[in-house]
Amino acid sequence: MTARNRWDLPSPAASPSRAGGVYADLDVEALKPIDLLLEGSEPVLAFMSSTWWLRHNIPNAWFASPPGHPFWQVCTRLSSA
User: Fold this and answer.
1) Mind spelling out the 3-state secondary structure of 16-46?
2) Cβ-contact 51, 59 below 8 angstroms
3) What is the pTM of this model?
4) What is the spatial distance between Cα 81 and Cα 78, in angstroms, rounded to a whole number?
5) Closest CA relative to residue 8, chosen from 74, 60, 75, 63
6) Over its length of 81 residues, how does the chain's per-residue pLDDT go in tens digits?
7) For 20-36, b where at least 16 C-beta lie within 10 A, e where not — what string?
8) CB neighbourhood size of 19 (10 A)
9) What b/e string do you get for 39-65 counting C-beta neighbours within 10 Å, with b at 16 or more?
10) With CB atoms 3.0 to 4.6 Å apart as the test, which of 22, 30, 38, 65 could cross-link to 43 if both were Cys?
């Protein structure tokens, strides 16, 4: 990895594990209110199709999470392996 493309990596201060919250790409449009999705204490991820087992079915264009959820620690560990 070069210094030129390091901007693409999330900073530790902005990670969902630490801060929690909602992430959405600028070209994502909510078709319904998301309030009910945010009431739980688990991360919320999107699916691209109802065929859940497809390899690239979970996009990174939208997700939400409470702060400190262990799901993100697992993701970080798997991505650095």
Assistant:
1) HHHHCEEEECCCCCCCCCCHHHHCCCCCEEC
2) no
3) 0.68
4) 5
5) 60
6) 455 444 444 555 456 777 888 988 899 898 999 999 888 899 998 888 777 677 778 888 889 999 889 988 888 788 776
7) beeeeeeeeeeeeeeee
8) 13
9) eeeebeeeeeeeeeeeeeeeeeeebbb
10) 65
